Amino acid sequence: MLTKTFSGENPKGWLMSEKLDGVRALWNGSELVTRKGNRINAPAWFTAALPPVALDGELWAGRGMFQRVLSILGSGEGWQEITFRVFDAPAVVGGFETRLEAAAVALAGCPVASIVDHVACAGIKHFRAFAGAMIDQGAEGIMLRRSGSAYKVGRSSDMLRFKPVETDEAEVIGHTEGKDSIKVSWKGLKFALTTAMRPAVGELVTFQFMGLTDNGKPRNASFITVRNYE
């Protein structure tokens, strides 16, 4: 289940939570996998503590620690710093609140995982106050989940994200000669991202930007990382 961008919809009655800057992971009851289904090599002591219930969430090491999570996943060292923050139980029948409650019950007493706290939104003023307070504390952004919504595979308008700085992914389509930059394609557009790395053509990269220009291109786009961890 993937997010869409919050664009001013009435959030009253939706469930709000902090958007965590971790690595998305699915626990299928026996192993952790990425959103593309690739196995995550978590240590046995970590996975042994998880319940035999499918859970969707983020491997997280704290605010601003995304690169540290990638380092731990790559090296296998430092898993003590990671927690699995869960926001859904895909196999449970029922709406979002029912699935979240089932996840909370399954994770009771779990030393390596916990559910993400959610708050019912009373309206746009409540959303703005909540988002402002969370971002002031260092949160990456806010997630909104439609009350009672079903779990859907793929991108869903029932799950929205709000971030002061947006991130997305693009495919590398070439290298700019003589410069530390790469050419990428994003939603049919082509532009360059400055980076000292040289990911191969065809690889996906994550970049950040601050809204769109009048012609629809990402404004102030900058490279974050190669998406080789999924």
Task: Give a structural overview.
The mean pLDDT is 92. A 5-stranded mixed beta sheet has the order 1-10-9-2-8. Strands 4-3-5-6-7 form a 5-stranded mixed beta sheet. It is built from 4 helices and 15 strands. It folds into 3 domains: 1-17 and 119-164, Dna Ligase, domain 1 (2-Layer Sandwich); 21-115, D-amino Acid Aminotransferase, Chain A, domain 1, CATH 3.30.470; 166-226, Beta Barrel (OB fold (Dihydrolipoamide Acetyltransferase, E2P)). The longest helix has 13 residues, at 124-136. The protein has helices at 44-47, 66-75, 96-106, 124-136, and strands spanning 2-5, 15-19, 23-27, 32-33, 55-60, 83-88, 113-115, 119-120, 141-145, 155-162, 166-175, 181-186, 189-194, 204-209, 222-226. It starts with a strand and ends with a strand. With 230 residues, the chain is of the alpha+beta class.
Binned, the helix content reads 10-25%
Please report the distance between the alpha carbons of the first and last residues: 15 Å
For this structure, what is the CATH homologous superfamily of the largest domain? DNA ligase/mRNA capping enzyme
Unreliable residue runs: none
Major sheet details = 5 strands, mixed
Order of helices and strands: EEEEHEHEHEEHEEEEEEE
3D shape:
globular
Under CATH, the topology of the largest domain can be stated as: D-amino Acid Aminotransferase, Chain A, domain 1
Domain count, please report it: 3
Q: Please give the radius of gyration in angstroms.
A: 18 Å
What is the CATH architecture descriptor of the largest domain?
Answer: 2-Layer Sandwich
Number of strands: 15
Calculate the mean pLDDT score and round it: 92
The structure class reads alpha+beta
Count up the helices: 4
